[in-house]
Structures are given as structure tokens and as C-alpha cells.
Design goal:
The chain has a single domain, classed as TIM Barrel (Alpha-Beta Barrel), CATH 3.20.20.70. The protein has 10 helices and 10 strands. α1 packs parallel to α10 and α5 runs parallel beside α6. The termini are far apart. 42% of the residues are buried.
Length: 260
């Protein structure tokens, strides 16, 4: 698959994996390998507090490039603190920025996200902000210098699919003026990943749909193939829909109209 750029980092895989919710580390490793993922996100807060099921997480992810995230942050200040800890824990200078004060729907706070992004950029971080499908906010973040924008397809972990498609189409339309667009949250099936990749967006981040599948490694492979198919379809230049039918076989010599 063609390479893409996240700040100074060149990637070939367009499928980023989350590390949460797997039944154990062995299954997680199998899924990562099946997805051929180059990057896996890791929650700094869970590592920091040694939450059950996360003790030894960093060791289990050895050899994989980690993307620390600020999950659990409710304010810009909390996010900045977690980002600093993530840099110390992983040695990585990039961060997936999440600022989520809403416990019911886990929707990101646009104002605190913008504030945190500015603070982190001033400290030299490569910032990948998670956000709602708000094109105005995306342009503001891009103007600050974020390495990506990461609009949601649906609420985190819902598996609802591409409920924000009409708004994501605007991101695709404005893509030349934006950093890479990574669709994050809500994808439940490989077909959902293919759908957003066919729009011309750059990558997807998937966790729950893979971790909670009956066979996570098989689902990870399915998502990988869907991402590759969606990207290839976009690059191939899909046909434009027509208002009516168009025969695929020659019509010369075929009587027109309805049978008498």
C-alpha cells in the first residue's frame, strides 16, 4: 500500500490498532500481526495506574511502535500531563490527543481539544487530535500544525458504523487543505472501514470491533483487507453514479421499447 506521512513519521499501513479490550495479551499480539499494524495506541492512564489487565502492557507491545493517548483526560491540562507521561513511558514524541468530559457518549470537547493541541505543539509534540466531524475545528487544528485530524464515525465503541458519512464527505472534499484524516471510533465492520477509505480519507483506527470479535485475529485480517481494498478503490477512480440504468452489453440490433 502507498505510504503516508504523520508529521515526520512515514507509514505504510493505513490501519492503526487500539490495545484495549482484548481478552489477553497473546490474542492482542496475534491481532496486531494479522492486521500488519505498524502503530498501536496505548492509554497512558491505564499504564500509569497499573489497571487490571494492563499490567505488563508495554512489555507485551515490545517491538511495535506505540502511539500514547490521553484517554481519561477531561480538560486540556489533564491531557497535557498525560501526554508528558506518555513521552516518558514510551520514548515517543507523538500523542493521540483525547479530551472527553462526557461520560455517557464519550464525545470529545472541541474547545479543550483545541486548547490542549496548542499547548502540546508548543512543547514540541506531534499531535493527532481526536475530534467530532467538525470541519471548522479541523481547519483550526490544521492551522495550529497538528499532524492529523481524527474525526469520529460514531461514538467510541458503539460499532454503529459511518453515521457521520455526510460530514466525512466534507473532509474528503477539503482534503487538500487538511493534514491526513484518520477516521477514529464507531467502526464496527470491515465494510465500514472500506467505506471511509473509498472516500479518499487517509487511515482508520480500530479497537473494539477487533478486540470484541469472536476471533480477533481473523477480524483484524478482515479489516486490513478492507482498508487495502477501500484505498485501492479510491485510487482507481470509481465510476460516477448515473440517474438511470446503463447496459453493459452492446445495444446494436436490439429492439428498443417494451415488447408488443
Amino acid at each position: 500500500m502507498d505510504a503516508w506521512q504523520v508529521g515526520p513519521i512515514t507509514l505504510t499501513s493505513r490501519l492503526i490498532l487500539g490495545s484495549g479490550k482484548f481478552q489477553d495479551f497473546a490474542v492482542m499480539r496475534e491481532a496486531i500481526e494479522a492486521a500488519r499494524a505498524e502503530v498501536v495506541t496505548v492509554s497512558v492512564r491505564r499504564v500509569e495506574v497499573g489497571a487490571p489487565g494492563h499490567v505488563g502492557l508495554l512489555e507485551a507491545l515490545e517491538g511495535v511502535r506505540l502511539l500514547p493517548n490521553t484517554a481519561g483526560a477531561r480538560t486540556a491540562e489533564e491531557a497535557v500531563r498525560l501526554a508528558r507521561l506518555g513521552r516518558l513511558l514510551t520514548g515517543e514524541n507523538w500523542v493521540k490527543l483525547e479530551v472527553i468530559p462526557d461520560p455517557a457518549y464519550l464525545l470529545p470537547d472541541p474547545l479543550e481539544t483545541l486548547k490542549a493541541a496548542e499547548m502540546l505543539l508548543q512543547e514540541g509534540f506531534v499531535v493527532l487530535p481526536y475530534m467530532g466531524p467538525d470541519l471548522v475545528l479541523a481547519k483550526r487544528l490544521a492551522a495550529l500544525g497538528t499532524a492529523t485530524v481524527m474525526p469520529l464515525a460514531a461514538p467510541i465503541g458503539s460499532g454503529w458504523g459511518v453515521k457521520t458519512r455526510a460530514l466525512l464527505e466534507l473532509f474528503a472534499r477539503e482534503r487538500p487543505g487538511l493534514p491526513p484524516v484518520v477516521v477514529d471510533a464507531g467502526l464496527g465492520l470491515p465494510s465500514h472501514a472500506a467505506e471511509v477509505m473509498e472516500l479518499g480519507l487517509d487511515a482508520v483506527l480500530v479497537n473494539t470491533a477487533i478486540a470484541e470479535a469472536k476471533d480477533p485475529p481473523a477480524m483484524a485480517e478482515a479489516f486490513r483487507l478492507a482498508v487495502e481494498a477501500g484505498r485501492k478503490a479510491y485510487l482507481a477512480g470509481p465510476m460516477r453514479p448515473r440517474e438511470g440504468a446503463s447496459p453493459s452489453s452492446p445495444t446494436e440490433g436490439v429492439p428498443l421499447g417494451r415488447p408488443g
